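Why does this matter for the project? Reviewers at the last site visit asked to see concrete outputs rather than summary tables. In response, this paragraph embeds two records directly. Each consists of the residue sequence and, immediately after it, the corresponding structure tokens. Nothing has been edited or filtered.
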Amino acid sequence: MYEQNNTPPPTRSAAHQDAIDVNDFVFAATGARLRRLTLPDGEHWFVAADVATELGYVNTRQALLAHVSPDCTRSLGEIAQDVCTADTSRKLAGHRLQKSMRMVSLKGLIRLVNGCTKPECVPFKTWVDEVILTVQQQGSYSLEPAAVQPAPAGGTAYVMPEQVVDALVRLEERNLQMDESLAAFAGERNDLLRQINRSQSRMADALDDIVQALGRRADRSRPVSEAVLTPQELLARWKAKNLVVTDDVHAVAAVLAPTLVRGEARYRVEEIATRTGLPHDRVHDCLRMLLKRGCLRQTGCAADGAPVYVRP
């Protein structure tokens, strides 16, 4: 048993030589190249699902029931039982054929063609009509022998019917046009993919620029953290700028500095006077001096009435 697609079967005897090559015959009938099994006796079988799909049938099982007689359809397993060998099993597996597949004979294929509405099948069906009409009128139909014949052992070569030739030519032209269309489409698709790739690259670059710009803006808007001062450093800074000129002012500043370096300082005059031993009036004068020299500023008063001081 031979599995076929577009290649002819091994050489057969003249008794089994097809008058019309089965590949061309099926292509003209269905408009497609179909998987085929050829038995040693020359009988051809086709995958029913392939035939039904190419001819536009929605349901293979219904198509077989409606158009094909039971003797024209068998499972691949049934066919394989008759001629099954180890080599046959390997060929079936190699061509993704399963024994559960339904197969149709060439007669069954012709019946499916006659029942379909595919436009590509019209020339073939027209030729079939002419063959039947010729048989009815003249009692027989025969092909004209070819002018050039093969060797005597090769059988007789025949001229292919004009209708079949026309169908083959139209189908091949259609296939060439489809190939050209597919090639053009592939070219357009590749161009589009290149354009998309360039656009995506530009978008990625633009997004990267935006991220970098936002990062620079965030860096500029982020306040520069001021170095943490110790109370001693704050007092030394005031003294270096001649802001603290007397011991009394320095004593009051020494009370405020430890709290000012951490934030707000909330002290009443009485509390500062107690810590420094200075009179209330003198503490008040020292605070006025610190405020006047810009060492600190008052932002308000706390709930208990104590003034709130911060560094300027």
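We now turn to the second protein, recorded in exactly the same manner.
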Amino acid sequence: MDWSKAKNVLIVAFIITNIFLVYNIQKDAFNRGDLQLINDARIKNVENYLEDSGLQLDIDIPREIVSLPRLMVKYKVFEPKELAEEFLGEDYETLENNVFTSEAKMVQSISNKKFVYKNLMNEAGCYPLDEEGAIEISNQFLKKHRLMQADLELQQIYFGVIEDFGDIPLYKLVYNQTYKNKFLAESYVHVYVRHKEIVGIEAMLLEFERTYGDKKKVIPATEALLRKMNDIIKDNQEYKDIIITNMEIGHYFNPTDSNLNFTTWDTVESGTTSPSWKIVLSNGKTYYVEAEKN
């Protein structure tokens, strides 16, 4: 037997087998949408550059590059009179611009896609409240008024003074929608809790209709950060520290997209999401970076 030829055949077979295995591993990873392609050196270089530029990172930069489809979505409709009865009862006064009041409570429907509720009653007492208590009160209120959907997740909690609610600190709870464990934006429910009362709600929600087209490969998180870095720094010059606390990939519907044949948000009823990176700062500001790779 020609052992030299046999050895060469084995080497070639080994290489072919490895190529086949790598291909299948990558194919499976793409099918799962979780193929990791960003190496540690690239991550470290971007981290150093961001911090040298004035952006602090309180996160690990996501390493995964995934593929996501576009989604067809529409705004959830909030009928003005139904909102008034839901939050104010049957005895309410109708004002202009879809504003309804009852004693110190107010609800407003904005273009039937967004609503604001406020309870400006003077609270009878001052009750200490921790985060768990605020979450419990908020969740109960949302369930009572049929806003606690299965795709709604509590993602952020802030405590402090908010201008629209006076100079007494309160909790702001931020709920966001998801689609298959990825964020679906811009849709949200903001709940404001002071002591043991819900003093405000702002909500705008989307409804999923269907997927649109094939999955699209997205840009890496490092590229999204570098693209948005200057805008974030410019927009937060008044803050001593600019800290990124969360970053994730998901679906973002931009109703002012130039591809839409609409001129104002008021007229938009539905549209298509784009795969996008969401960047959240410690001060609550949120930025989106369109992530579809060209």
